[in-house]
Amino acid sequence: MSHSADQITAPRPSQTAAAPAPVKSQKRQGRRWLTITLFLLPALVLFGVLVLLPMLLAMYTSFFDWNGLGGRPTDFIGLENFQRLLTDDIFLGDLKRGGLLIVLSLLIQLPLSLGIAMLLNQKLRGRGFYRLLFFVPYVLSEVITGVLFTMVFSPNRGLAEHIFGWFGFDDVGSTWLSDPNTVMYSLFFVMTWKYFGFHMILYLAGRQSIPNELIEAAQVDGAGSWQAFRHVTLPLLGPTIRISIFLAVIGTIQLFDLVWVLTGGGPLHASETLAVTMFNDGFRRSDIGYASATSIVMLLISLVFALGYQRFIMRRDIEGAITVMQDKK
Amino acid sequence: MATPTNYSRRSILGLAGLGAGAVLLNACSGDDDGGGSGGSATVEWWHIANTEPMLPVWDAMAKAYQSAHSGVTIKITPLENEAYKARLTTVTQAGTPPDIFHTWGGGVLKQQVEAGLVKDITSDTADVRGTMIDVAMGPYEFDGKAYALPVDQGMIGFWYNKALFAQAGVTAAPATWGELLDAVRKLKAANITPIALAGKDKWPGHYYWAYLSMRIGGLDLLKQAGEDGNFNKPEFVTAGQRLKELVDLAPFQKGFLATEYGSPDGQAAIIGNGKAAIELMGQWAPSVQAEASGKPKGLGDNLGFFPFPAVDGGKGTATDAFGGGGGFAIGKDAPKEAVDFLKNLLSIDNQRKAAATGAIIPVVKGAEDALTDPNAKTVAQTLASSSGFQLYLDQAYAPEVGQEVNETVAQLMAGKMSPEKVTQAITDVAQR
């Protein structure tokens, strides 16, 4: 029995680490590290081989003019690929289009999800059904969603065209995906259709962790339902909203599958995203060096955003978790 | 604190690796089918005939070969055109090409040859090459060495709906560019969509610009540009201007920028359903029309073919043909049975069987008598009497140049780029 007791205490040294005997503590400290290493090793190896190594290799190939064939890249060109990016209209357009999608997500998609979540938090007949229904699109893969909406938006026999045709707007229905000026909004529509349910569930979970007493108390104090929402519910939903924004932005920066199937980035690059450009350059044009440079820029954008966002905006949300651990040490 | 889970939400990270992924794939892939010697061997065969009528025909040929050669297993992977290009690129970049794989020859094959991914089959196939028609080997030979064998050799031309032409009062197939524009005007006047075009796929659009360049500047112009990368020549600009004349008539179906080629509402289906009168497409057009429109016979007797018209004052002749066929290259690690099986596909009997479907135009002399479809016969005859041949530009040139041609011509056809800017953009890429 003492053997198994040892095993249990080993991974939880925090309870005993404060013990006064220093020698014993050092010994335990060493065993603690051994345990941590053993448990982390498989994950670290996988992370290293499947995440870090490809990143480093992509960084390496981004300094070469390389078509991807024939062993190692040899034509070192320094930062030329990155300079090319700065003058590439498609790449600069990707940034603009990504920005547009992010702005639309924050202004329309997330508030919509929040509204629906609040609505479905009310006592409502069949709300379980609605919750399920709105969550279903998120379960579909992006590829299936893409195929589905290419049919809906098909210029010549799509569902959208038929519906709009009933109201006499034949041309509106046929230009959803084929007009460079409307394609981004069509894409955003499909994105919203697919992801609003996911954010709705997040908000719903967040809302349900807020005790109803708080809202009742506010109402007793004379707050109307808007005031109660604005000054009680919304601030308490803060952590949930911040994580939801984070996921929406990162997801948008890396958007690929849906665009690829729905529009292929077209017409005329009008719906192209960074990831689509990268795919085109890498696999269609065999310009792996340049595509790697794009992927590195994409990584940097995501990384800077993720670190900055967590450092400045989500600090309070994650601080709790971290300080608790440090206190126990 | 950039938590990895955020990235793994999308499978994009795999793509972020790109070249890296290629290296990893290389390391991971087993070498189970390579270098087989006698006895038993597995031959991996990737082709793009993923629909009727060729899919079952090639299946049957593989089965027949297997039963005649015990121990040989032919593992077939049929892929749709676009999916095939994407998938082949990943495996070639990983350095593990399939044993037998579809190729259009030209610049892409040349790149694969230079990377040592493709077997030199010059001496192994000398006997078979002797049985082929003259223009067949062109796209598959570099420096006098053969790296692939064609099984199909066709050309691009206009496929048209005879009934719709009659309805619009177009009595003769257009022989000049001016007559083609007239036909388009008449069709429009009769409320018929003149031309179906798959703008989303881009490659069907480049046929127009390539053919016009050939008619205006001649074959040498395209060859020269391929070598020195200079597309800033008056003939190319003129080709763009002629094309713009057509585009200005708004001849394409509505929403053509989002239309695919082979989908159920795509270019081929539009023609097959009689919703547009003309498409500029290759020898495979009738079979894809039938397949995509869901009508087993497509347009049947109503479908006609005419070669790309001459352009007044052009240096090229109207008998020069543009297009390509399909061939098969042998991967670097392929067992010797792969070459033998490929040669077997090119036996006159098998070429006849393939030709009988009407989906391919055979390359082996004498097999063309098995063509039953009158349209296929017309293509074969036009090709046999052609004065010169140019491979698809997006295959003839290096991939980045070919893609730039496709994309800039698509911009031109959408009215977003001038003919001068098109040639400049292609030159920029070709000379980079």
TrEMBL record, chain A:
One Pfam family of this chain: BPD_transp_1
Subcellular location: Cell membrane
TM ranges: 33-60, 99-120, 132-153, 183-205, 245-268, 288-309
Presence of keyword Plastid: no
Superkingdom of origin organism: Bacteria
Regions of compositional bias (Polar residues) in chain numbering: 1-17
Segments for region (Disordered): 1-24
Ranges of residues in domain ABC transmembrane type-1: 95-309
Entry keywords, A to Z: Cell membrane, Membrane, Transmembrane, Transmembrane helix, Transport
Primary location recorded for the protein, binned into one broad class: membrane
Membrane topology: Multi-pass membrane protein
Keyword Transport recorded: yes
Similarity annotation: Belongs to the binding-protein-dependent transport system permease family.
PANTHER family, sorted: ABC TRANSPORTER PERMEASE PROTEIN (PTHR30193), DIACETYLCHITOBIOSE UPTAKE SYSTEM PERMEASE PROTEIN NGCF (PTHR30193:SF41)
This protein's name: Sugar ABC transporter permease
From TrEMBL, chain B:
Superkingdom in the source lineage: Bacteria
InterPro entries noted in UniProt: Bact_solute-bd_prot1, SBP
Pfam families: SBP_bac_1
Protein name: ABC transporter substrate-binding protein
